[in-house]
Design goal:
Blueprint lengths: L3 H30 L2 H26 L11 E4 L5 E2 L17 E4 L1
Antiparallel strand pairs: 1-2, 1-3
Helix pairs in contact: 1-2
C-alpha cells in the first residue's frame, strides 16, 4: 500500500500500457488469426481502458480537489466502460442499454 498519488500513478501507468501496447497487440493477433469475436472483445476492452486512463489522469490532476467525492461514477456491467455521466440511451463502447450501468457512489 502506498500513497494515493503513488497508487494513482501506478494505476494510470497500467491503463496506459493496456491501452497503448497490450490490447493493440492482442487486436493485431486476432485480426491475423481472422477471429472476429476476439477482435470485437478486445476492441470493447480497449475502449474501457481508454476511459479508465482518462479518469486516472484526471484524478491525478485534481488530487487535492478530490478529497471529497464530487459525484457518482457509472460502470457498464457488460464491458466495464466507466464514466461520470450516465449515457442517455446506451453504452458508447458495447452499445448495451443504459440499464446495464451500475452507479458507484
Amino acid at each position: 500500500m502506498k500513497s494515493t498519488r503513488e497508487n494513482l500513478e501506478t494505476a494510470f501507468a497500467g491503463e496506459r500500457y493496456e491501452r497503448d501496447s497490450m490490447y493493440p497487440g492482442f487486436l493485431a493477433q486476432a485480426r491475423k488469426d481472422g477471429d472476429a469475436e476476439a477482435v470485437r472483445t478486445f476492441n470493447l476492452a480497449r475502449s474501457a481502458e481508454i476511459e479508465h486512463a482518462t479518469l486516472y489522469k484526471e484524478a491525478l490532476a485534481r488530487l487535492e480537489d478530490m478529497r471529497q467525492r464530487d459525484g457518482a461514477m457509472y460502470v457498464c456491467g457488460v464491458c466495464g466502460y466507466t464514466t461520470k455521466m450516465l449515457p442517455a440511451a446506451k453504452c458508447p463502447s458495447s452499445f448495451s442499454p443504459k440499464e446495464k450501468y451500475e452507479r458507484i457512489d
